[in-house]
Design goal:
single chain; six-stranded mixed beta sheet; alpha/beta; 16 strands; binds zinc ion
Length: about 280
């Protein structure tokens, strides 16, 4: 089975177009898009539904008509109010599957997605959680915001509220279980800590302890991550191991960056191309 993986495209149309071209040229069986799929429109995130209905719908139709399985998740910069529209759009095509907190089975392999993230300094909190009960918050860049169908809902006291909802650790423990971990591929937007897959350009490592411990304990075949676009450029690391599990975080700098994984011969290659 041949897999093409990319992440954090943030609505970049030329990168989406290349993603399809590469999938077609390399005859991949599965294309995986790991989250933060939608454009930010200079901060007007409430327009993200236009992208889903227009560009993304068409993008999905190309994969569908080429019989390429496409597994995807929204990410922390994709408003949660568009979950339903995203789901409906995926559901229009038999080859497109919304992997968020779900399992997809193909030819004996099991793919499981997870798109909650550890809290960030940024104001949008739709998909943010504390990592573990002991989690220490980063300095915040303003008061918390949540998307609602009628606009932003502000919140004072985000840190207190975050203590009352599930942590990443708890969410991971509730995730659907595969039948065979040795043939399971997790797509977890948030990278684990400690491996150099989570370093920001200001030098802070912000990866998840809970994700690391989950992978260490369960030992799946592969885990695919994203979220910190610059990390591979900062550390020089885009893949690492936790026991027998291979963890991959290709990053997403200015160049279109993706990974090709051949499960039959174990080859994993990271590629970058400019517009
Ligand atoms: Zn992200």
């Amino acid at each position: 089975m041949k897999i093409l993986y990319t992440t954090d495209l943030h609505g970049s149309e030329w990168k989406y177009d290349r993603f399809f071209e590469v999938a077609r040229i390399l005859h991949v069986d599965v294309a995986i898009n790991g989250g933060d799929m939608l454009p930010k429109y200079g901060g007007d995130l409430f327009k993200q539904d236009d992208f889903i209905k227009g560009f993304l719908n068409k993008h999905f139709s190309w994969f569908n008509s080429n019989d390429i399985h496409y597994l995807c998740c929204l990410g922390n910069d994709d408003l949660i109010i568009f979950n339903e529209l995203f789901e409906e759009t995926c559901d229009k095509y038999p080859f497109i599957f919304n992997l968020s907190q779900r399992k997809f089975d193909l030819w004996g392999y099991e793919f499981i997605g997870f798109n909650w993230v550890v809290d960030t300094p940024f104001r949008l909190k739709d998909r943010c959680r504390m990592d573990t009960p002991e989690y220490k918050f980063q300095k915040q860049l303003g008061s918390a915001l949540f998307s609602t169908p009628t606009g932003w809902m502000g919140m004072d006291g985000w840190e207190k509220y975050a203590h009352s909802i599930k942590t990443i650790e708890q969410e991971l423990s509730l995730l659907v279980r595969p039948n065979d971990m040795s043939k399971t591929i997790y797509v977890i937007h948030m990278p684990p800590h400690k491996l150099g897959l989570d370093k920001c350009d200001h030098g802070l490592s912000v990866g998840s302890k809970a994700v690391y411990e989950f992978l260490e304990k369960n030992q799946p075949l592969l885990s695919l991550h994203g979220h910190i676009h610059e990390s591979p450029d900062v550390t020089g690391i885009w893949q690492a191991k936790i026991g027998n599990t291979i963890c991959i975080q290709p990053g997403q700098p200015e160049a279109f960056t993706y990974v090709v994984i051949d499960l039959d011969n174990g080859n994993i290659e990271r590629m970058s191309e400019y517009l």
